[in-house]
Amino acid sequence: MSEQTTATREDALRADIERLQKGGPQKYKDRLPEGGKFFVRDRLDLFFPEGLRFEDGLFAHNLRADEGLAADGMVTGAGDIHDRTVFVIANDYTVKAGSMAERGVEKFIRVQERALRAQKPILYLIDSSGARITDQAGFFANLRGIGKYFYNHSILSGKIPQISILYGPCVAGAAYTPVFCDFSVMVRGMSALCIASPRMVEMVTGEAISMQELGGADLHMRDSGQCHVVVDTEEEAALAVKRLLTYLPDHCDERPPVYESREPARDGAELDAIVPEDPNQAFDMHELIDCIVDADSWFEIKKDHAEELVTGFARMGGHVVGIVANNSLHRAGAIFPHSADKAAEFITTCDAYNVPLVYLCDTPGFMVGSEVEKQGILKRGKKFIYATSTATVPKFCVAVRKAYGAGIYAMCGPAFEPDATLALPGAEIAVMGAEAAINAVYANHIARIEDPKEREAWIAEKREEYRKDIDIHVTANDLIVDHIVPPSELRRELVARLEAYGDKHLPLPRKGHGTVI
């Protein structure tokens, strides 16, 4: 074969590759900026500035590329983020609105299987209108059809990190990938997530509703808790995902990366002033977190969902930790059904990926009343307690102030095998606070005291007696807590224990799995 013929053949192949990489018809590409969207390959550049290391499946449907089916509407391959290999699946919205059909489905499944074999994280860049209904015979119920997505999501869960980013309405089949993933990121005003489109909802129920009202980012962050991070632009989405990956290992048999230690954003000496002495006075737990974690390392998960409970990743002395904290600034820091779900999911994820847990307890306990009973406070509360009980990573409980009722159980109190139970000087561990306890025990006696001043003085005296019984020094005397920590030393005490328990091994009875979650 002549050198000229060889060169011509290679040039022709390169021309084919370039043509396929352009995606669908130009008219659809021209419409993307109207919705603030990037073309899929420009979107990938936000994650992989050096380009993909490799791409598989580019020639899927290449014989029908002129019909607008380039790569069957899906880009799959792998690239490098923070010098780590990450697999990726990305819908091309210029090809049949990113719809999924036989070859695209096969590409999706192959990447899942290969990422698991390679033990590397996987990103799902979702911009799909769902199944390509006109071609459903080739992929819907097949052995390697779209149902295999969800099977593989389940098999991969907790083994390699799965992160989804939504760039448009994810409806029906496309909606399940985000909820199966460890983390999902939504772009405000652009993303939506729902089991049926507004048109289908109106046909079935008669309800007229917009896409954002039905499944927008703010709704899922605030109400359903079905997304973990909300951002305003595609650029912010890529930055958030890159940052999130720094807290996670490549796979479940590896530990998260360790970084150089940084001093906290706030001096630990401020902590004593941040935490009010009065157990009923609210304060923002984020201020305490700023005093104990490495500066600029706090990454909150589900920030605006169930705000009475804070969850997020951070670093302490360079070590990744997952923080579960009650926030009295919202609903007194009581545990509600949604916050129990939020905590259970986060704890389970941290345990799957070897992220140590730090619990910052300041709660009056689980909320009571008819409304939370309707919402299944016991059923959902048990998930929180179960997740805490079965987590095998290093666990540390800090009684910040109130540690009442079953709240101290969920927040990894002494009975739940923490590697240390620490307490700040004003902490109280008890069945309930002084006010509630005295009212519960002495209600009839209080009612018989007619003089208001005498009644008030008697109640105050009993409350003071009760507080003496639950004083943290009494608790420490009985070895219920391991150490009462000067507030300015809390970070140092936690970092020292993180380093000591880095090789923790907790053998558990051999079994398949529990039934609680």
Can you walk me through this structure?
- The chain has 517 residues and is an alpha/beta fold.
- The chain folds into 3 domains: 3-245, Alpha-Beta Complex (2-enoyl-CoA Hydratase, Chain A, domain 1); 268-431 and 471-500, 2-enoyl-CoA Hydratase, Chain A, domain 1, CATH 3.90.226; 434-469, no CATH class.
- Helices cover 39% and strands 17% of the residues.
- It is built from 20 helices and 17 strands.
- It has helices spanning 3-21, 26-31, 40-47, 102-118, 147-156, 173-180, 198-205, 211-215, 217-224, 234-245, 271-274, 285-292, 337-352, 370-374, 377-390, 407-410, 434-448, 452-469, 472-477, 490-500, and strands at residues 54-56, 74-81, 84-91, 122-126, 162-166, 169-171, 183-187, 192-194, 229-231, 299-301, 309-316, 319-326, 357-363, 395-404, 420-423, 428-430, 483-484.
- Strands 10, 11, 12, 13, 14, 15, 16 and 17 form an 8-stranded mixed β-sheet that branches. A 7-stranded mixed β-sheet has the order 1-2-3-4-5-7-9, sandwiched between helices. It has a two-stranded parallel ribbon with strand order 6-8.
- A hairpin with a 2-residue loop joins strand 11 and strand 12.
- Helix 4 packs parallel to helix 5, helix 13 runs parallel beside helix 15 (377-390) and helix 17 (434-448) runs antiparallel to helix 18.
- It is elongated and about 100 Å long.
- The N and C termini lie far apart (65 Å).
What's the topology here?
Blueprint: H1 3-21, H2 26-31, H3 40-47, E1 54-56, E2 74-81, E3 84-91, H4 102-118, E4 122-126, H5 147-156, E5 162-166, E6 169-171, H6 173-180, E7 183-187, E8 192-194, H7 198-205, H8 211-215, H9 217-224, E9 229-231, H10 234-245, H11 271-274, H12 285-292, E10 299-301, E11 309-316, E12 319-326, H13 337-352, E13 357-363, H14 370-374, H15 377-390, E14 395-404, H16 407-410, E15 420-423, E16 428-430, H17 434-448, H18 452-469, H19 472-477, E17 483-484, H20 490-500
Parallel strand pairs: 3-4, 4-5, 5-7, 6-8, 7-9, 12-13, 13-14, 14-15, 14-16, 15-17
Antiparallel strand pairs: 1-2, 2-3, 10-11, 11-12
